[in-house]
Amino acid sequence: MADTASETSHPHWPLTRTEGDRPSLPEVNASVRVPAGASWFRRLLAFVGPGYLVSVGYMDPGNWATDLAGGSQFGYTLLTVIMLSNLMAILLQALSARLGIAGGRDLAQACRDRYPRPVNLLLWIACEAAIIACDLAEVIGTAIALKLLFGIPLIAGALITALDAFLLLLLMQRGFRFLEAFVIALLTVIAVCFAIQIVAAAPPVTAVLGGFIPTSEIVTNPDMLYVAIGILGATVMPHNLYLHSSIVQTRAYERTDEGKRDAIKWATTDSTIALMLALFVNAAILIVAAAAFHTSGHSDVAEIEQAYELLSPVLGLGIASTLFAVALLASGMNSTVTATLAGQIVMEGFLRLRLPQWMRRLITRGIAIIPVVVVTALYGESGTAELLIFSQVILSMQLPFAVIPLVQFVSDKRVMGSFAISRGIAILAWLVAAIIVVLNVKLLIDTIAG
Q: Residue 163: exposed, middle, or buried by beta-carbon count in 10 A (0-12, 13-18, 19+)?
């Protein structure tokens, strides 16, 4: 639907839809009703959903290894890094929602409108690489979960993940709210699994709270700094910025200045609450690793399968390892849905190229499955751990290509008009962008050198 109100109110706004141009995710755009004149709680409920889809990327299998390593090696110290990275994510996702709502364009469409074609092609290739890398982590995580729960070999488990190519298609046919409900249900499973494990681990409350207080040791200890950078690098997912700027437009808010300001408020509330859940899950992984492994002398636990084997014996809870694997499987399935959506948004936004969802999913998942099968066949199951780390390096390389355009757009009054962020928020956003870029470049250099 044309954003005529925005065009009238903001003559500087260049991200307007031309004739024949499609809205982001046109099959679900403005499909979720927002009750007019309802109570604040009902309006909040109408906007609940997109933030939880976004939060999936902040607790996907790619994050687990860094959280496990941080907890087993350094106890609760790196909880402050998880909290800091989560605060950065809350800011960036709020900016992403603002861009999508204020202009009716997702980040990929905004880049296409503002940048020359060669730059857009570069951004598209970089983003596709990030989505494939993210999918690679999901294939490995899901395959490991299937092996731990059902004894399925990794190669067979990786091939089985191809079947989820049709999962998103089935969910979308039932409506976007059904898709959101599915994701929230799996997130609830993950949260409950780790809540039970935290209770079983019974970590000392004082030590846990102390972990959220910054300490200079994080910077002065090279090993701790390396893991801390890994946690930061694995937390902020570039494709989430494209995803969020699109799916906030599924709400049928009034496309007027007042309606958009109201929508930005509720969308930001939704994503902030959802990302607090992501903070809990990432912190829970580290807390369980610290309580179970660091205090018992198993400070070398950094791989998912190691953690699975040790959890039940160390915690003295027979179901602990099973809960860990169930949460991993739910995480992998959830990440599949959001990565597929992001892939569709990126391809349509940058290239105006539309593929059937099942074809898009099969192509992306096929590209991710091949290296898992080849590496497992050549180097054994230990090779997949290296592949998981490599996927996070690829994500780190792409991150600046998403963060910098986002901050540039939302801080530019020539682009955003009255919806541009304030100078103070802009300075903070550029600072966060700089920190993320510098830390990811250092992580990349250290990983290659190491």
A: exposed
- Decide: 364 and 135 in contact? Cβ < 8 Å: yes
DSSP letter, residue 32: B
Q: Which residues pair with 32 in a beta bridge?
A: 251
Residue 255 three-state SS: coil
Residue 174 CB-density burial (10 A; 0-12 exposed, 13-18 middle, 19+ buried): exposed
Tell me the two tokens of residue 165: 């190519």
Listed residue (393, 413, 54) closest to 242, CA to CA: 54
Residue 182 Cα distances to 167, 235, 364, angstroms:
11, 22, 22
Contact 46, 35 (CB under 8 A): yes
Per-residue pLDDT of the chain (450 residues; tens, 9 = 90+): 334 333 333 334 445 555 456 888 888 888 999 988 888 899 999 999 999 999 988 888 777 878 888 899 999 999 999 999 899 999 999 999 999 999 888 999 999 999 999 999 999 998 888 888 887 888 888 889 999 999 999 889 888 887 776 777 778 788 899 999 999 999 999 999 999 999 999 999 999 999 999 998 888 888 888 788 778 767 777 889 999 999 999 999 998 999 999 999 999 999 999 999 999 999 999 999 999 998 888 888 777 888 899 899 988 888 999 999 999 999 988 887 788 788 888 888 898 877 776 777 677 777 777 888 888 787 776 777 777 767 767 777 788 889 999 999 999 888 888 999 999 999 999 999 888 778 767 766 776 776
Is 251 strand, coil or helix? strand
Q: What's the pTM?
A: 0.88
Residue 251 pairs with which residues in a beta bridge? 32
